[in-house]
Amino acid sequence: MTYELPQLPYAYDALEPYIDTLTMQIHHTKHHQAYVDNLNKALTPELAAIPSLEELLANVSQFPPAIRNNGGGHYNHSLFWTILSASPQTEPQGNLRGQIEQHWGSVEAFKKAFTQGAMAQFGSGWAWLLVQPDGQLALLATPNQDNPLMDIEGMNRGVPIMGLDVWEHAYYLKHQNRRAEYVDAFWSVLDWARVDERFVAAHRQLLVIAS
Ligand code: MN
Q1: pTM given for the model
Q2: How many angstroms does the Cα of residue 129 sit away from the middle of ligand 1?
Q3: CA 69 to CA 73: how far, in whole Å?
Q4: Please, are residues 73 and 145 in contact by the beta-carbon 8 Å criterion?
């Protein structure tokens, strides 16, 4: 199989003024496209036969670094685009909200903890909310294009349900060095309805693993 750049579920200017049009265009058509192209270039026939990107990443320690970097880049950006919206559900609801409140005390406290993780990631990387194999939520920050699906030494593994790209290419045109301003803008376009869909799907994936 070869991997393809997914279309955005909205126009490039849809997330204005929080994420600017030019950043979205370059991020999607140049950065994400390059991860897809370089992933396809790095696929051997054996690796191309692996039926899903999730399975490729779950065994990534066995493969060349180009698979880790570009496979991660493709997965991470594909996730990122889908959790953003011009008309987002601005608060988590239901079971997801319950688990967040149980773990962090309140949605506000959760957002503060997630923001701290995003700010503390030195250099390029991602901040994650994931569902661990025990079903519990956890926060994680990873360097480069790593993510919690990967079987990398020391990784707190699980299914990522929310991710924030903190590479400078994600915010430098509008926010320059002010990462905190970008993280703040992210909360205005994060669609909790999409995070909740991933939360429910993650539990199904974990049930399958456990059965
Ligand atoms: Mn990026």
Answers
A1: 0.96
A2: 17
A3: 6
A4: yes
